[in-house]
Amino acid sequence: RFTEEESKRVQPIGFKKYSGNDRKSLGFKDCFDGLGHVISNLQILTPAHTQHQGLFGFVDEGGKVKNLTLENCSYINVETSIKQHVGILVGVNYGMIINCSVKSCVIENANPDLAGGLVCDNWDKGVILNCSVDDVLFRGNGLSIGGLCYENGATILNSCVTQCQYLGENMIGGLCHNQGTSSILANCYVALLDYPENNFASIAYKVTANSVVRTCYYSEHILVNPVYEGYNYDIQDNVYTFGDSYITTNDGKHLLDALNGWI
User: Fold this and answer.
1) How far is CA 175 from the centre of its chain?
2) Average of per-residue pLDDT across 135-164
């Protein structure tokens, strides 16, 4: 459990540094095993000249973060000049994020930044597996938000988003904001009690034609399209709804049986 003073001494693990035309990066390439422990009350900082923020700023190829929960943590940025890529756990991932959770956290930005509840950018060979985001508050105007991950340019499997809140005029995808070319999003679900009436899609705000979306579910109470209008790549045959208690999907299966049926 971190105090405010202790939080000020915590720097993101791994970073991409942007300073004029000079770009330097030092990604995390080791294995961090949380062993099921919980980090709580951490206030994530914005180091100068960096754009990817989280407990891990940059997980590089070969890096792994697993078996860790972040609870009651926050990222609050009042800087208005530099666009930030924010995830509570990871800013940008090229490695593997396994069995990690974010619970009851806050992301608040003063300018129209990019945000994901768990990871902001999942790129290259990045994998997010068996992860969850629950009760995260996103606050700001003009944010581009993915409940789990802002931009998935790689692979997300067996993960979920539940009970998140969105305050402000933002563009939101329940799981991802942008499902990029050649990416995979499979065996995931979204469950929300409340969601904004405008600029919200239950699965992804935008899906490109060459990505794979398969066996994804959202609550039958979410009365919006899986993909936001205007970015209407057809994923209807691979997306389903489920009932109040997760008991059955609309094709007659228990939700968890359906999700675990092929992996």
Assistant:
1) 7
2) 95
